[in-house]
Write a structure and sequence with these properties.
The complex is a heterodimer of chains A (about 70) and B (about 425).
Chain A: H1 3-24, H2 29-51, H3 55-62
Chain B: H1 9-23, E1 28-39, E2 45-52, E3 59-67, H2 69-83, E4 92-102, E5 106-114, H3 116-136, E6 154-159, H4 164-174, E7 183-188, H5 196-209, E8 216-220, H6 235-242, E9 248-251, H7 260-264, E10 267-269, H8 272-388, H9 390-396, E11 400-403, E12 406-407, E13 419-424, E14 427-432
Parallel strand pairs in B: 3-5, 6-7, 6-8, 8-9, 9-10
Antiparallel strand pairs in B: 1-2, 1-4, 2-3, 4-5, 11-12, 11-13, 13-14
Helix pairs in contact in B: 2-3, 4-8, 5-6
The chains are: A mainly alpha (about 70), B alpha/beta (about 425).
């Protein structure tokens, strides 16, 4: 898989882990806050990857010889 | 026939013609391969039919054929709609023909009818052959087994820039409702006719050099039911597709039939629009998954925080009560102790006072006793002193004799000539010792 998707897949895996931890472990309120913040970051970056156009990527493709 | 008898060429040919007419009085079904096919302006079709050796491909038979426009006008669309293919050279056909012989032009076949199923059967056979080869090579599923990116955003498109399919595909992709980002690059190729396979393979080669920049390849072409799929039933093309390192998605615009490229592709879509939809739906799934995680985490966290808040409230509600209770307890204790203290200290004070009072009266009494004793002693001493005082003694008749102011106690202290003073009760006598 290309580098771009690997980061996305890694992010999703981390999100799954966080969700599982919150669900099954008795987390301290401080740790919980930390985890939720991290999750929010991950979700934001994933959403961006899906919906925000990265000009760099298109540029590479445009400059390719076809 | 005697050797004196001879025929003119025309006579011979006419004779042949008659005989042939007798033998072939009705159309017969002939299996042959079309090696050439032309249709002229008037609508008549002229063909060359051949037969090749199945193993060696060596030409075994060849005959001209034709089909008059009134017949061809019907057979052509009939064949095309039945097979989905245009009648053309290279195809194996089953045709009903009458055998014609013309004195000038020789033998030819006149096509009256065609059985498309034969051609279909042959086409199917050829396809099966290609599929079998791919299966034997063990590669037929290779592209299907490739992992498909969770977010296929970078797409290499093999299509013709002018094809309607390409326009539809790009439209769909760029204007998707969720606003997903896609990155595309067109690798133009010929999408119909004999050049198709080579052209697409060339495009695949170009994409191969940049494979790390793409998530998938899309092969699309607009069309409709009449567009030919046979150009995609090509072994070389399928071979390249199966082994391509990126997943291939086809949208070759054919509702009904599947070409071999469709079969070996990772995912087959019916049309270019469907292919775009497929890609968009993958991203939608990823997005939904994200939302699920988001909701899951939010709701879990909320319920945890609610529980903690409740817990805290319970505890803090108890604190005033508990602390009041404690305070109350302590106050009581304190009061009790205070009362006790008062009682004890009053008690003790009383006792102390009593003791002191006792002591003081005791003291007084003892003091008095002491004083009186001492007084008594003093009186005794006074009396004694009085009795022993010189005045008393002098009164009694005793006298004191002094020498040089000192009292004489022994006669030895005196010698003749000394002056002595004798103290009597009423005065002194001065004497001289003789």
């Amino acid at each position: 898989m290309a580098k771009q998707t690997k980061t996305y897949t890694e992010s999703i895996t981390e999100l799954e882990e966080i969700l599982a931890q919150i669900e099954h472990e008795e987390l301290d309120v401080d740790v919980l806050t930390e985890k939720v913040q991290r999750a929010a970051e991950l979700i934001k970056s994933c959403k961006e990857k899906l919906q925000k156009t990265d000009a760099q990527v298109q540029k590479i493709l445009d400059e390719m010889d076809s | 026939m005697s050797n004196t008898e001879s025929f003119s060429l025309l006579e011979l040919n006419e004779h042949i013609k008659e005989q042939l007419k007798l033998i072939f009085d009705r159309p017969i079904w002939v299996r042959a391969e079309i090696s050439e096919l032309h249709e002229n302006a008037t609508g008549h079709a002229y063909l060359e039919l051949i037969e090749k050796d199945a193993n060696t491909d060596r030409l075994l038979a060849k005959t001209k054929a034709n089909c008059w426009s009134n017949t061809f006008r019907m057979l052509k669309p009939y064949f095309e709609s039945a097979t989905g293919k245009r009648l053309r050279a290279g195809m194996k056909v089953l045709v009903a023909c009458t055998v014609e012989y013309h004195e000038l032009y020789g033998i030819s076949l006149n096509v009256k009818d065609i059985d498309p199923n034969f051609t279909l059967g042959d086409m199917a056979r050829r396809r099966m052959e290609i599929i079998r080869r791919l299966q034997e090579d063990g590669i037929i599923d290779m592209n299907k087994e490739l992992p498909f990116s969770q977010i296929p955003q970078r797409i290499a498109i093999i299509s013709s820039a002018t094809a309607a399919g390409y326009g539809d595909f790009m439209d769909q992709l760029k204007n998707n409702t969720e606003g997903f980002a896609f990155y595309t690059k067109l690798f133009p190729a010929v999408m119909q006719g004999e050049q198709t396979a080579d052209s697409i393979v060339a495009a695949l080669d170009k994409i191969f050099e940049h494979q790390e920049h793409f998530d998938a390849v899309v092969i699309i072409r607009g069309g409709g039911a009449t567009a030919e799929l046979s150009c995609f039933d090509n072994y070389e093309l399928a071979f390249n597709c199966t082994q391509f390192p990126l997943p291939i998605i086809t949208g070759i615009g054919h509702e009904r039939d599947e070409s071999i490229v469709d079969m070996v592709a990772h995912t087959r879509c019916k049309t270019p629009t469907a292919a775009a939809e497929f890609l968009i739906s993958r991203l939608e799934n990823a997005f939904d998954e994200l939302l699920n995680y988001q909701h899951g985490i939010v709701s879990l966290t909320n319920s945890i925080m609610q529980n903690e808040t409740l817990r805290l409230q319970k505890i803090s509600a108890q604190v005033p009560r508990l602390s009041n209770e404690l305070l109350f307890e302590q106050k009581n204790k304190l009061n009790l102790l205070t009362v006790q203290l008062k009682r004890e200290s009053t008690q003790q004070a009383k006792e102390g006072l009593r003791t002191i009072t006792n002591y003081s009266s005791d003291l007084e009494r003892k003091l008095r006793l002491y004083l009186s004793r001492k007084q008594h002693q003093l009186e005794l001493i006074e009396k004694e002193v009085q009795l022993s005082s010189p005045e008393t003694l002098l009164k009694k008749g005793y006298s004191l004799t002094l020498k040089n102011g000192k009292i004489l106690k022994s006669k030895t202290q005196v010698k003749t000539g000394d002056i002595l003073v004798t103290k009597l009760q009423d005065g002194d006598i001065t004497s001289l010792v003789s």
